[in-house]
Amino acid sequence: MFLGAFLITPAGLILWGVGASKGISWGGLVVGMAFLGFTITVGGGIPINYTVDSYKDLSGEAMITVIIIRNTLSFGFNYGITPWITASGLQDTFIAVAMISVGVTATFLPMVKWGKALRRRSAKKYWAYVESGVAAH
User: What does the domain layout of the chain look like in residue ranges?
Assistant: First the structure.
């Protein structure tokens, strides 16, 4: 399911950043922003759903952790993007951010390949944590 975000995020970033720097029509910018709006929703929802489905008995703790990470990254991006644009320009900044997004979003690929094995290996620790009462509801 994350393949869409993997492909559409850099496309939206490049379309918006390069398009804005080159003065393309507002329609192209809207399409770039629509791509980004889609991937922001998908990028936040899929990890939460994956975590809750994988670790049902710790879903509250896991969801809070995912949300904190997501919000911290959002804050960091919003805090740092203006100085970056000022220093590098709109086009170069958004091309770099698009390439960073490819690297970050590609982390779903190891989970597709090894996620099940990782969950199986961590099962003992998971159940010990659940049984310890730390995750008691």
Answer: 3-131
Q: 15 — phi, psi (to 5°)?
A: -60, -45
Give pTM, 2 decimals. 0.78
Predicted pLDDT of residue 134: 60
Instruction: Identify the segments of the chain with pLDDT beneath 70.
Output: 133-137
Q: Please, what's the b/e burial string for 34-63 (b: 16 or more CB within 10 A of its CB; e: otherwise)?
A: ebbeebeebbbeebbebbeebbeebbeebb
Residue 77 to residues 31, 47, 74, 81, 100, Cα–Cα distance (Å): 21, 19, 5, 6, 12
Angle, CA 60 vertex, CA 130 and CA 57 arms, to 5°: 30
Q: Which long-range contacts (CB under 8 A, 24 or more apart) does 44-50 make?
A: 44/70, 46/1, 46/2, 46/5, 50/111
Closest CA to 11 of 32, 26, 25: 32
Q: How far apart are CA 14 and CA 121, in angstroms?
A: 39
d(CA 83, CA 89): 10
